[in-house]
## 1
Amino acid sequence: MGHDAIILGGGAAGLFCAAVAGQRGRRVLVLEKAEAVGKKILTSGGGRCNFTNLGAGPDNYLSANRHFAKSALARYTPRDFLDLVDRYAIAWHEKTLGQLFCDGSARQIVAMLLEECAKGAVDVRVGQEITRVGRDDEGFSVEANGETHRAPSLVIATGGQSIPKMGATGFAYDLARQFGLKVVEPRPALVPLTLGGEDVLFRELSGVSAPVEAQAGQGKTAAKFREAALLTHKGLSGPAILQASSYWRHGEVLRIDFLPDAPRGWLIARKGETPKASFAGVLREHLPERLADTLAGRLKLEGPLQGLSDKVLARAEDRLRGWQFHPNGTEGFAKAEVTAGGISTTDLSSQTMEAKRVPGLFAIGEAVDVTGWLGGYNFQWAWASGHACGQAL
Ligand code: FDA
């Protein structure tokens, strides 16, 4: 049987796209390299899959073109996906900040996607080694496991480069380049940052975590995240850092506000209230002991507050509200939850995800240069871009 569309990759975006197109009567073939589909879905959210975020909107995504994701996100919203989850009676809960997780297991999401594919009579094949992809007057041809498949449409849904151990490669980018599409240099995102130089002192605090506001990026692309930071034996992690890492570039500073909950002028006020309290002792009111002591040591401020002038305390507060770290790198694709960059949006239609100059070729999901924040936003992009494409196939 001939197919109308071949989808490469049976992950979140590929399966959802296949289901949407299949249910519209298209004959769809999904070719998945791994022995099972949806591996990242299964490991996501600690096995419970943070499948969407109620607040997901274009501002929660990074891309060289920050308008690109708008159309697809507006046409398939978190509520739309939630309705589907509810139709399958999958129990879920909201954790924090609009993040929705399964009560049970991420397996339920994969089972739901496969059921949706079955409703659309999608042919899902796993263990497929793709050896060649070509294009001629009749459309696309894909050689996999010694067979040649043909279709007028081809969808690249093979994801990003994050976690090579799970089989992630740059396949999507190579394929895109083969068809003349540009690729925005892929880089690890939602990834722990490593510290060296003067900052290594903080590595001794491995295991300590604190609520902070982390800021990274320059100008229009700067962003701030108020969540927990975690010190590790390599540097910095925790949600605030992972979020900021997507905006951080080599050579730039990462600013941490260690006092996000303290009122301005707090140190001077504390001096009035408890003049005999030590500087480190007062910091411990807002920060874990070891971190407070390290920061006090780095500021070289010891002894009781009454011995420190208001000017010195005001300067110390400024530094604590904008502590400058100089990360020397990231923990790389091995530890990155997602890949920033990817197939350039300039070459794709934001309505359909079709390549503007290669009719019939589409790209969706993480392979595209649209990267979500931590907290269910990346799956929402996979669903929304998959839906936009599935409606156009
Ligand atoms: P995805 O990676 O899901 O799928 C690509 C598929 O293509 C894979 O099945 C792969 O095997 C296949 N493939 C690759 N190369 C191929 C080839 N040459 N031929 C055929 N098939 C090939 N996001 C979120 O919103 N909430 C969360 O809770 C999490 N949690 C999370 C945890 C961990 C550990 C990671 C690594 C990532 C997350 N994410 C997340 C991110 C999320 O998993 C990711 O953004 C989506 O899975 C992207 O969906 P795609 O379908 O684009 O790629």
## 2
Amino acid sequence: PAAVVASGVTKVYGTGDAAVHALRGVDVAFARGAFTAIMGPSGSGKSTLMHCLAGLDTVTSGRVALGDVELTSLGDKRLTLLRRERVGFVFQAFNLLPTLTAEQNILLPLELAGRRPDRAWFDHVIDVVGLRDRLTHRPNELSGGQQQRVACARALVARPEVIFADEPTGNLDSRSGAEVLGFLRSSVREMGQTIVMVTHDPVAASHADRVVFLRDGLIVSELTGPTPDTVL
Ligand code: ADP
Ligand code: ADP
């Protein structure tokens, strides 16, 4: 079964004359262990779709399932719990706590959830992300690319079923962006992680296995397999 499935998803903001139809019937499935990019012009509904898939926002109609759990049938409390247990997030702004070291930032979500870190898994994540010699550094002692890799490690350490990444390279220069994307790719290859990434950067999207294009709240086309930059 797919890791995430959206069926007939619509999202309307506001009512009456002010209503904005941000999603107009989206059907899409994200396979386990795949790295998918969602692209589209500004205002096409990318962030709205990601928020609906991740259970950060409710749909107006249609259904979203995360594995075997139908999100659209859950109340707020269970949704929050499910998100904590099954979903990881990486955002454009790295959202690290400035007073904590890299290691403390990475372990914080587990601590907040009252879970004990699995030390072997933590070590594995740190090696994949290449932060072994940066664990005691605070965010202001790290480059942008390193900070985003800390944010990726923080998302991965709880072993989420899916990582949602919203413009993860939006604040990075192209070299640091390539580093972060390389790391996301390795987490798919070496850990079987499922990743759904929103981006408007064709170079970022070219690292994905599949690219889905949104326009005016609908999926209008997609590319699978290696995607040369020249196609995007
Ligand atoms: P994208 O991420 O592709 O730029 P969004 O999902 O942010 O697109 O927005 C899709 C449409 O929904 C746009 O017309 C946007 O103005 C509108 N929209 C997004 N969020 C809200 C909101 N909270 N209230 C009203 N309209 C919104
Ligand atoms: P919780 O009640 O478990 O904290 P939240 O809805 O506050 O659940 O958010 C879940 C995760 O997603 C948190 O890591 C939060 O920081 C992040 N998050 C939620 N909404 C946004 C948003 N609009 N932009 C950035 N991060 C967000």
## 3
Amino acid sequence: KEYIGEAQAFSTQNTAELETFRIKFLGSKGLLKELFAEFKNVPNDQKKEFGQVINLLKTSAEEKVKSIQEALESKEESKEESKGFYGDLTRSPEPVIIGSRHPISLVKNQIIDIFSTIGFNVSEGPEIEDDWHNFTALNLPEYHPARDMQDTFFIQTNPDILLRTHTSSVQVRYMENNKPPIRTISPGRVFRNEAVSSRSHCIFHQVEGLYIDKDVSFADLKQTLLYFTKEMFGKSKIRLRPSYFPFTEPSAEIDIYWGLKTETDYRITKGTGWLEIGGCGMVDPNVLKNCNISPEEYTGFAFGMGIERIAMLLYQIGDIRMFYENDVRFLEQFKSSI
Ligand code: PHE
């Protein structure tokens, strides 16, 4: 009975002491073993009481061991947790993964560098435009059939608010706010309601150039484009194909001869080696008038190029959709180009 008191009163914070207690009471040479062995020597009339007492001692000791063990384990766990708060300070650190610039940004920055060398600055404007800056000022009055050349995402009609279909809108803004001579390029994102395929997307990037001064001629335009393609691609075989834009007259399509060295070249250029990278022309006198510049005094040229097209050639990317998928396996490949 004394032992029952002892077992019930026992307490410790320490696993070694708990083990000593367990061996003393429940071990193979422990007290309970001895008492059970004693049982047969107890006179019959006392057997019942003796039995009850040793059973009580047994359960008391067992419960004690169990409850102290649980308490010690949960203490151990919370110690582990608090260690996790600081982490294991001796562990070597996780490697830091550094991002890379997007290929569109890489090409855009390169284009800006090339044109800034010959005196062009960079201008920007809003992606959400009004009808005036995207169409009307650019010699595309209401109901002009050429408005359909660029399938437009309208945000609101009457008055029309839309996602700009080209960055020519930035040039209108620039001419409205600056006097010639003007030499500016406007890189930016544009939107067209077109079916998405490997060759075209409803969101893409353009860089437009505008040069307005006295006596600017088509020869200046061609030389500027030759200089650009030489710097950008290391070669400058270009073709200016007569074309039509409402805001330029005369107008041309700019093709660059890239060649057919790889399978991707075949895919991108449709097997011809030539790729259309944009449009250009002499700024239409009506556009100058709309922006309060006198066409009698000034002339100018403008061009617009697709940044994706240029990036596809340079980096051999066969599908335009890859630019917008944000797949790290694609993006990681531009790390060395930072
Ligand atoms: N804005 C035209 C387009 O997006 C390109 C262009 C710009 C053509 C400047 C001529 C002059 O298709």
## 4
Amino acid sequence: MHIPPKASIVVLTGAGISAESGLATFRDNGGLWAEHDIRDVATPEGFHRNPDLVFDFYNMRRREAAKASPNAAHNALARLENAWDGPFLLITQNVDNLHEKAGSKNVLHMHGKLNSALCSECGSHQQWDGDLDDGEVCSSCARAALRPDIVWFGEMPYDMERIEAALGGAELFVSIGTSGTVYPAAGFVMEAAGNGARTVEVNLQATGNPLFEDCYEGPAATSVPAFVDTLLAGR
Ligand code: APR
């Protein structure tokens, strides 16, 4: 694949990139949504109805993510960001910090982060690495209103203006390890293609979305490093 040097690259990742690090995806067999009801653990209504169930769900995921290590796919994206001489933005739907652990710097977590807490009262975000339970006090406003810093269904993803601007100028859009079923992320390929970007999917199996010009199939820990090598060789 030939992409001109200094081209603007936008990468979107989903749960599939962390699967080989031992973290469950959502919609594969045995995925999180097979074990837990989205309405109970990933909506504001569910949190209001039973906050302890939600705190427990994210505490379990935070503990698993803390024990997980980045795999060769995360490492390859950090290598690409470091080697690329043009604009590079890594947008992730994931709430684990495996991209950061791999050395990626410019990571945009559009669905929030497990190792952060959000104050329901003042809206401040604070680093949170251990278990987060009901009644924890916000360090900014001192009210006992901290919740998981996760964007739930029905809530607005973070940094959409920054994302729209990046998609408007992207010359290459790469979607990795996502089923492309949840908007707005699922619509990013259409925006990028509409602005003239090359579009590539890297996934265990192709999702079949005709808006992707190229698809690299296979487990991310193999297919992403191969893709990055191709990209860097083709400059
Ligand atoms: N390598 C590459 N891709 C993989 C691998 C792997 N080892 N294992 C699974 N995949 C692919 C699956 O084929 C699927 O296309 O990763 C994708 C995972 O899809 P989902 O489970 O739907 O996860 P994701 O696309 O990230 O979900 C998007 O939905 O519930 C919300 O907020 C949640 O951010 C999440 C969003």
